[in-house]
Automatic annotation (TrEMBL), chain A:
Keywords, comma-separated and alphabetical: Cell membrane, Membrane, Peptide transport, Protein transport, Transmembrane, Transmembrane helix, Transport
Major location category of this protein: membrane
Protein name: Nickel ABC transporter permease subunit NikC
Gene3D superfamilies registered for this protein in UniProt: MetI-like (1.10.3720.10)
Species this chain originates from: Devosia nitrariae
Bilayer topology annotation: Multi-pass membrane protein
From TrEMBL, chain B:
Protein name, as recorded: Oligopeptide ABC transporter ATP-binding protein OppF
Originating gene: oppD_2
Bilayer topology: Peripheral membrane protein
Assigned protein family: Belongs to the ABC transporter superfamily.
Protein localization: Cell inner membrane
Species: Devosia nitrariae
UniProtKB/TrEMBL annotation, chain D:
Primary location recorded for the protein, binned into one broad class: membrane
Annotated keywords: Cell membrane, Membrane, Transmembrane, Transmembrane helix, Transport
Organism classification: Bacteria, Pseudomonadati, Pseudomonadota, Alphaproteobacteria, Hyphomicrobiales
The name this protein goes by in its record: Peptide ABC transporter
Record bears the keyword Metal-binding: no
């Protein structure tokens, strides 16, 4: 690039500051792993979103044909009420995906802010760390049980559990990044220059904190999907008859002899989702390593 | 001449990165002899460690030997089965590593680790223990029978390196390969360890290969030298001969670009242009040709071979020019030593731009709620002043408080007591206004050129952030940024590059440009060149000197390398354990030190002048610097002082009374016996 | 096999899904059915074959001419497990406890209707009432096993569970197991053949069925789905016991949309009962729409099948009510298999053009709503007590009693109930038909189906009986058939 | 060692106090008046008020908390309002089942985790390495309940090797007991074991890069001894701490695993208690789970201190 027009190139530089960050993540998704992962995820999301169009019979199309074996017509067979298990699994994705898509970003933003709050007030940062300690002291399902007690079982309780459960993961990462970035010489240099705290935060600390956080978003999504399954399996999550991967398993396991696909189907969906997010996390992680290890 | 102990012939190694192969070492040949120290020198990445590891057959997994042989005891080590090689490692050839912190297993006692070296080569446990105690004593660890059951973290860095050396000599190895054994240590400790190595060499009659990047170290203890550049040996021979008349331009330039602690100070250091090449992208022909003032066509095309020089068969060099001309032509540049320094630039009467009075910096001790550690007093009652256009050098061992002091001045640390005045204004409280004032006046250049630039920002962004702080409107920043680049000698076309595209020296220049962006009047440079290779170091030092003279900057120049400080400074302050122990005009301090610590530092610093007796005359300090948590009473230096109560128990005053920083005129020292300190220095030079 | 005289000895191992609830011993609770009549004795039990009362602690009883005075005499040789002899006072105490709301007895309304309960001798109790006491009193007797007034408070936490029955309550690990031991002082010693009974509480139905593979001798109330695995297994015998469960679908008649009778009736026709039986209950069950057993006097086939699957008819009725597309808010008890039934109900209602919106509610919350008579516009319940007389059920079943959650309280309903409850002899059948017709027509509570409990037992286990409500009796049972 | 404890203790105590506050507040946050629950639906206002006084519910919350905590500390865990039985008794009754599961799972977790970790950390080339890495990654991403269900499908249904649900005490019938224990214990242990394995593997790689390993090689120490005395010895701390951290999650996993495999343990009790709103029981189970997790963690740190002289002597 030749710098002929100073103002223009300067603006270009600033645009690149943003572009470079996002571009890196997009580039990561272009890698083979990222491509497969995001492709799979897009496929699952599209299937969930367009389930009513793909399967016009709806999630509840019952028939007298209980427990049919898997066939072309019913890839996962039918359940006790003669419903297509595959269709129900696809619909169930709606719950899992909506949960993590709402809850994890909330947790990511809140957690990151809480983690970074130490930059504004040391005391506040410490206080949030203690909160994270407490949350981390609670094994995930115990946490879920506590929240179900307070809120009552359902989507909201699950979303809250996922948020609370993921919060410290982001908070810790952000704080870790903050602490390590704060001591970096380029941050000190900016401080010596008199750059204001918010600007230092946005320009120097946040971009470097974001990498691990983006990776964690993917991982927390997996965590969230499994939390839904766990709580719904024991009946404390989504309440039947709304199909979710957990509620399907809750019922499916009772018919495991009559229709193993009733259990296997939701598990396949769970694993596909987990695989998609895992591949994405891997790809992002590789990207992080690449830019870190320059 | 002693027989060859080890012969390396045409050694080549390659790295494999996926499909690609990179040849890292090319035709490396040299020999080591019993009773002699062979120095291998070269800048970072030139392949020194790789050579050592190839000899030991301890290459990284991705590397392999592609050709050549390593002859030892009439066999080729590279052909031995691994089990045979293992029995040679540690028993016939031993190795000492760079970082004494990391080279010992933290969860095993030092005794266990020495014993292991013996046990794996067949000694029984109880004999091994007795021998381990003996070895600890041999390397100079006091009370070895007590310390043998201590863990490594209970030892200081220097002592750990002694333990590693004890391991190396445990099985009476014939050859010790020491890979930068003192690079991580302070000069005072370095002197201890080097002396130990030399002692052991002559006492045990072994051969030593010493890898280093410090020509001073080579001059002081090596008998032979191998100079490496870009994975090749470019010159080798006896130290005296090579130093007197280097036959490769690289060797010559390297020697010249070193700042000297003694002799005439020059205005500019001779530099080697460009930077050290990356082994995976070596220039064609002679790897040094892009930086060589004699480069001819042939140098671009043909790789020069290492051949004996006409007239001095013991000398070999790999240079087309030297070969064609039967020796290196004289340097086209004017001889630097002919242009003495232009005197002190400041008028002594100008008001100080930076004044520090009785400043202390304390770090909380840490620990839990129930048990608090004592606080660390990193800086304890320091007073300094700096005038415009003046350079004040600040030297001292690692951990003495140099960084803490300098960061406090720019508000990165809070002082616990004392005053800071910048351009006459008291800024100690560092309120909003004071902070703004400091930032306009004082800027900082950091030590690590790799860490001090945000890898996410282009150079343009880095500079314009700084220019923005100066209040420059957006449209003017471009021109200002170009001016800054020009000022530090970088091409303005580089503005759009990211830091990773630059070498260490270039980055450091960008760091300086950033500091200059706000047009400060004082620059604080915290070891700005200690992470750089010698050839690059000179470039940065020259730029600093230029800028100081052009802009009338006051510079607080921090370093632990006394030669560098001497080159640049008008006045020098010596720091020990949070205190200034001596301060004065550079020439006075260097020539007539009034504090034993200064004398020791000066004496410990290796000088790139071969002198077989230098090692014997050196003042070598015992022990290590005490922890700033629990400084000794009275004079802080007394626990290591060669003239204090250690040498003369009647000197109770050193234990009881804290010496004041006093002296004739500007040259002050904090010693109860300054005259004796002066005598000490004279004695070590004679 | 089993022809020789039964040999005493051995410990019977039972498995059941619900935990024991000694606190609610006077109420019909699934977890108590297995052990109630082992630890306690009733005055009489109703025979599952004949439906007639059989004496247990009672030796004889007589009714006055108008049926309003009822005298029962009890054994004089029965002792509580504490050793104290049983007296008429204990019987009076027990019947008084039936009335206490905390004890949650479904018979409370019947007993509260008595004007007096008195001990008229050490072993004689006299009950008077404004309406005939018998035959409904035998329903009361069957459920109200005789408690020991001295140790009554121990029932609350199960620390002391004392009756006069053939087995003693020894050890209870709540949620896990219950152990009973033979009562050597039983008044009919030859009836106690087993050394003891061990009841495992296995909440997971599949695990319960699995336990049949050698770990228990009998599994009570397994799901038909799990019972399948024992079909054709010669070592295991499947029994359809008395004491069916019924599944009412209640409709609130006071609020739209179900204030319209046509719509209520339409629901009855909309539901495919046979599919529920086939798919939820694996074919075990019958599609009766009555609230009581179909062998009650006067019951006709028309009444049993009054509501049958007829979506066309349902649509017409919906159209008549002008309720096409109406939203049906259903509160569903979160107790298996009701949510599964709901899924078919929901599907059926959708098929006839309604818009069902179901909410599955935890048992505890549902019970609260049921007690308060407040479950919203429509709700799916689960009731037991099948085997009690219809006259008893109309006041005992939460779906039918006066404070029912359907808010169905017309004068005529009470009148018809009263007529049934005071009907003596032959008057009973017409009274029941008239009440039944009325209830079917008003369609405030649709019974979807009756499902008998499925038990599995090993061949060797013999000699046990069920009373007509489905409670187990182990007097005379043995393990060497 | 004392110094180490003194440093760690405050945060442990803080953690326990915070958890106790949360556990104490749970029933109160859940809504529903315990006095009303006890009194039953038909009780009068006076009855309820009397019960409130009896339970101390009329006192300020902090006083109630103090009383509750005081009772806890002397071993009085309260009384279940649903079953009217002391919570301590209820827990003791179910403890055996969960203990069997937890012990089996912990043993499996430690053995498999450390074993796999060492294996993965030692094998650095070839198909074995790729296979191990793949297996560990898959296990890592699959939580206990999914692992459990897959085990049921594979071992229980497809191959019909093991019974898929139910429980018998190992003490009563070791053979049946263990056959019923294998799958749930494996399901609980595998994900955590993978986590531990991954940490150990990473740590071993890291230690392998350390200069002291190079020095050991340069001393002529044979590879096996290097792995054992140098690499493993320096990785054990990670193993111990990792195990300590994972035990809490492992225990919590029991909640779902017990439901899936129909084991009458504490986890299932907790779930049932939530459904039946028996909050006095949930409260104690929650508190217990966290207390155990925190204490095991502390224990592992003490062990670590014993393993690492740098911490030991500080
Ligand atoms: N494990 C490795 N993988 C890839 N390249 C390596 C590895 N180790 C060293 N190199 C490369 O080999 C070259 C020579 O490295 P070597 O460590 O021998 O240099 P050196 O002269 O010892 O430098 P220094 O003074 O920094 O220790 C360097 O360019 C380095 O980048
Ligand atoms: N943030 C901090 N917290 C606690 N102690 C510190 C902190 N920074 C420095 N110290 C301690 O203060 C003392 C002086 O450190 P300082 O970094 O100033 O030394 P230095 O002279 O710059 O050393 P070096 O040559 O290694 O850079 C050291 O003992 C160090 O451990
Ligand atoms: Mg090296
Ligand atoms: Mg420093």
């Amino acid at each position: 690039m030749t710098a002929t027009n100073p103002t223009e190139t300067h603006a270009g530089g600033r645009r690149r500051l943003m572009g470079e960050g996002l571009g890196r993540y997009i580039a990561a998704l272009g890698q083979p792993k990222g491509l497969i992962g995001s492709g799979l995820l897009v496929l699952l999301v599209l299937a969930a979103v367009f389930a009513p169009i793909l399967f016009p019979g709806g999630v509840d199309q019952q028939s007298r044909d209980s427990f049919l074996l898997p066939s072309l017509l019913h890839p996962f067979g039918t359940d006790e009420l003669g419903r297509d298990i595959f269709v129900r699994c696809v619909y169930a994705l709606q719950v899992s995906i909506s949960l993590v898509i709402v809850a994890v970003p909330i947790a990511a933003v809140l957690g990151t802010l809480m983690g970074l709050s130490g930059a504004i007030s040391g005391l506040l940062g410490e206080a949030f760390q203690r909160v994270f300690d407490i949350i981390l002291g609670f094994p995930s399902l115990v946490l879920g049980i506590c929240i179900v007690i307070v809120i009552g079982p359902g989507w909201l309780a699950l979303a809250t559990t996922i948020v609370v459960f993921s919060l410290p993961q982001f908070g810790r990462l952000a704080r870790g990044a903050l602490l390590s970035e704060q001591g970096r010489e380029y941050v000190l240099a900016a401080r010596v220059l008199g750059v204001s705290r918010p600007k230092i935060m946005i320009r120097h600390i946040l971009p470097n904190a974001l990498d691990p956080i983006f990776v964690q978003v993917s991982l927390s999504m997996i965590g969230g999907i499994f939390i839904e399954a766990a709580l719904s399996i024991v009946g404390l999550g989504i309440q039947p008859p709304t199909p979710s991967l957990g509620t399907l398993l809750n019922v499916g396991i009772r018919y495991v002899y009559a229709q193993p696909m009733y259990t296997a189907g939701p598990i396949i969906m769970l694993l596909l989702l987990a695989l998609a997010f895992n591949l994405i996390a891997d790809a992002l992680n590789a990207q992080v390593l690449k830019t870190r290890g320059e | 001449m002693a027989a060859n102990l080890l012969e390396v012939r045409n050694l080549g190694t390659t790295f494999r990165f996926g499909q690609a192969e990179v040849q890292a070492l090319h035709e490396v040949s040299f020999e080591a002899r019993t009773g002699r120290v062979l120095g291998i020198v070269g800048e970072s990445g030139s392949g020194k460690s790789l050579t050592a590891r190839a000899i030991m057959r301890m290459l990284p997994e991705t590397a392999s030997v592609s050709n050549g042989e390593v002859l030892f005891e009439s066999g080729n080590l590279l052909d031995l089965p691994e089990a045979r090689m293992r029995s040679i490692r540690g028993s016939k050839i031993a190795m000492v590593f760079q970082d004494p912190q990391a080279a010992l297993n933290p969860v095993k006692t030092v005794g266990w680790q020495i014993e292991e070296a013996l046990v794996v080569h067949g000694m029984n446990k109880s004999r091994a223990r007795a021998r381990a105690i003996e070895l600890l004593g041999q390397v100079g660890i006091p009370e070895p029978d007590k310390r043998i059951d201590d863990f490594p973290h209970q030892f200081s860095g220097g002592m750990r390196q002694r333990v590693v050396i004890a391991i190396a000599i445990a099985n009476s190895a014939k050859l010790i390969i020491a890979d930068e054994p003192t690079t991580a240590l302070d000069v005072t400790i370095q002197a201890q360890v080097l002396r130990l190595l030399v002692d052991l060499k002559s006492r045990l009659d072994i051969g030593v290969i010493l890898i280093t990047h410090d020509m001073g170290v080579v001059a002081e203890i090596c008998d032979d030298i191998v100079v490496m550049y870009g994975g090749r040996v470019v010159e080798r021979g006896a130290v005296a001969g090579v130093f007197a008349a280097p036959q490769h331009p690289y060797t010559r330039n390297l020697l010249r670009s070193m700042p000297r602690i003694e002799g005439v100070r020059t205005a500019r250091l001779p530099t080697i242009p460009g930077s050290t090449p990356d082994l995976s992208r070596l220039p064609s022909g002679c790897a040094f040709h892009p930086r060589c003032q004699f480069a001819e066509d042939i140098c671009l095309r043909e790789v020069p071979v290492l051949l004996p020089m006409a007239g001095s068969p013991e000398r070999e060099a790999a240079c087309h020019v030297a070969r064609q001309n039967a020796g290196l032509p004289p340097d086209p540049d004017p001889t630097p030593s002919s242009e003495p320094l232009a005197g002190v630039r400041t008028s002594g009467s100008a008001p100080a731009i930076l004044e520090i009075e009785d400043l202390s910096v304390t770090f909380p001790g840490g620990g839990g709620w129930l048990r608090r550690e004592k606080p660390i007093v990193a800086v304890d009652g320091v007073s300094l002043s700096l005038r415009p256009g003046e350079t004040l050098g600040l030297v001292g061992e690692s951990g003495c408080g140099k960084t803490s002091l300098s960061r406090t001045i720019v508000g990165l640390n809070r002082p616990s007591s004392g005053y800071i005045r910048v351009a006459g204004e008291d800024v100690t409280d560092f309120g909003a206004e004071a902070a703004a004032h400091v930032r306009r006046t004082v800027q900082y250049v950091f030590q690590d050129p790799y860490a001090s630039l945000n890898p996410r920002l282009s150079i343009r962004q880095i500079l314009s952030e700084a220019l923005e702080q100066r209040g420059l409107p957006g449209r003017q920043r471009e021109a200002a940024a170009r001016a800054l680049m020009d000022m530090v000698g970088l091409d303005a076309a580089y503005l759009d590059r990211y830091p990773k595209a630059f070498s260490g020296g270039q980055r450091q220049r960008i760091g300086i440009a950033r500091a200059l962006a706000v047009e400060p009047r004082v620059l604080i440079c915290d070891e700005p060149v200690s992470a750089l290779d010698v050839s690059i170091q000179a470039q940065v030092i020259n730029i600093l000197a230029d800028l100081r003279d052009r802009l009338g900057l006051g510079i607080l120049f921090i370093a632990h390398d006394l030669s560098v400080v001497r080159h640049l400074s008008d006045r020098v302050a010596v720091m020990y354990l949070g205190r200034i122990v001596e301060i004065g005009p550079a020439s006075d301090v260097y020539e007539h030190p009034l504090h034993p610590y200064t004398a020791v530092l000066l004496s410990s610093t290796p000088k790139p002048v071969p002198d077989p007796s230098a090692m014997q005359r050196k003042l070598v300090l015992g022990g290590d610097m005490p922890s700033p948590r629990n400084p000794p009473s009275g004079c802080r230096f007394r626990t290591r002082c060669p003239i204090g109560p250690l040498a003369d128990p009647s000197r109770r005053i050193c234990i009881e009374k804290d010496p004041l920083l006093v002296g004739p005129g500007e040259h002050k020292s904090a010693c109860h016996f300054p005259d004796e300190a002066a005598g000490l220095a004279v004695q070590s030079k004679a | 096999y089993g022809q020789g005289a039964p040999q005493p000895g051995g410990t019977l191992r039972l498995a059941q899904g619900a935990d024991a609830q000694p606190k609610n011993i006077l109420a019909g609770r699934a977890g108590n059915n297995t052990w109630r009549h082992q630890v306690f004795d009733a005055l009489t039990v109703l025979d599952s074959e004949t439906g007639q009362p059989r004496p247990v602690l009672a030796t004889e009883w007589e009714s006055s001419e108008d049926g309003r005075t009822f005298v029962v005499r009890i054994r004089n040789d029965a002792r509580f497990h504490t050793g104290r002899p049983l007296t008429a006072e204990d019987v009076v105490f027990t019947l008084e406890q039936v009335m206490v709301p905390e004890n949650a007895s479904q018979m409370a309304p019947l007993v509260r209707a008595y004007t007096s309960i008195e001990a008229t001798g050490t072993h004689e109790v006299t009950i008077t009432s404004d309406t005939p006491v018998a035959p409904r009193v035998f329903d009361v007797f069957q459920l109200a096993v005789i408690l020991d007034m001295d140790t009554f408070s121990g029932l609350a936490d199960g620390s002391q569970v004392v009756g006069t029955g053939p087995f003693k309550w020894v050890d209870w690990v709540p949620g896990a197991s219950l152990r009973l031991e033979r009562n050597d002082d039983y008044w009919a010693p030859d009836q106690v053949l087993l050394d003891g009974v061990e009841i495992s509480i296995i909440t997971d139905s599949t695990a319960m069925a699995n336990a049949m593979r050698g770990r228990v001798d009998m599994v009570l109330a397994m799901t038909p789905r799990d019972a399948i695995m024992f079909r054709g297994n010669p070592g295991v015998e499947l029994i359809e016991g008395p004491g069916a469960q019924i599944f009412p679908l209640g409709l609130n008649v006071t609020a739209p949309p179900f204030d319209k009778r046509e719509l209520r009736q339409a629901i009855g026709y909309a539901i495919d009962r046979q599919r529920i039986i086939d798919q939820v209950f694996n074919g075990v069950g019958n599609a009766s729409c009555l609230w009581w057993r179909s062998n009650e006097p006067g019951t006709t086939e028309e009444m049993v099948t009054h509501y049958h699957y007829d979506p066309e008819r349902a649509r017409e009725l919906i159209a008549a009510a002008g309720a096409e597309g109406a939203q049906v808010d259903l509160t569903v008890i979160g107790l298996a298999p009701v949510p599964a039934i709901y899924e078919i109900v929901q599907n059926n209602l959708r098929e006839v053009g309604l818009n069902p919106m179901g909410q599955v509610v935890e048992t505890a919350a549902f019970d609260q709503g049921q007690t308060a008579g407040d479950l919203g516009p429509a709700f799916q319940q689960i009731h037991g007590l099948q085997g009690f007389s219809a006259a008893t059920l109309v006041d005992a079943l939460p779906a039918l009693r006066d404070t029912n959650p359907s808010k169905f309280t017309p004068e005529r309903y009470r009148e018809l109930k009263d007529a049934l409850q005071s009907a003596q002899g032959d008057a009973y059948a017409p009274a029941l038909v008239e009440l039944g017709q009325f209830m079917l027509d008003e369609a405030f509570s649709h019974i979807l189906l009756h499902t008998p409990p499925l038990h599995a037992k090993v061949q060797q286990f013999q000699g046990f009986t069920f009373n007509n409500v489905g409670f187990l009796h182990l007097a005379g049972a043995h393990l060497n058939g | 060692m004392f110094g180490f404890l003194a440093r760690r203790l405050p945060s442990v105590v803080f953690m326990l106090l915070a958890t106790s506050v949360i556990a104490f507040l749970l029933p109160r946050l859940a809504g529903g008046d315990p006095a009303q629950t006890i009194a039953g639906a038909d009780a009068t206002a006076e009855q309820v008020a009397a019960i409130r006084v009896e339970l101390g519910l009329d006192q300020p919350v902090y006083a109630q908390y103090g009383r509750w905590l005081g009772d806890l500390l002397v071993g009085d865990l309260g009384t279940s309002l649903i079953t009217s039985r002391p919570v301590g008794q209820l827990i003791m009754a179910r403890l055996g089942s969960t203990l069997e599961l937890a012990i089996a799972a912990t043993v499996l977790m430690v053995v498999l985790g450390i074993g796999l970790g060492i294996l993965a950390g030692s094998i650095r080339k070839g198909a074995g390495r790729a296979g191990l890495d793949g297996a560990v990654s898959v296990l890592l991403a699959t939580p206990p309940h999914v692992t459990g269900l897959i085990l049921i499908l594979v071992l229980g249904i497809t191959f019909n090797l093991l019974p898929i649900s139910g429980e018998v005490s190992v003490l009563r019938d070791p053979l049946v007991g263990i056959s019923l224990l294998i799958m749930p214990a494996l399901a609980l242990a595998l994900p955590q074991a993978a986590m531990i394995a991954r940490l150990i593997q990473a740590r071993m790689y890291q230690v392998r890069q350390e200069e002291f390993v190079d020095l050991a090689i340069a001393k002529g120490v044979p590879p096996r001894r290097i792995v054992l005395s140098h690499i493993l010895r320096n990785s054990m701390g990670t193993a111990v701490v990792a195990t300590g951290i994972r035990v809490g999650e492992l225990l919590a996993g029991a909640v779902v695993i017990e439901a899936i495999f129909a084991r009458n343990g504490l986890g299932l009790m907790a779930v049932d208690a939530v459904s039946s709103r028996d909050y006095q029981v949930v409260q104690i189970v929650v508190l217990g789970a966290v207390v155990i997790a925190v204490l095991v963690h502390l224990l592992s740190e003490i062990l670590l201190a014993a393993l690492d002289p740098r911490i030991r002597l500080q």
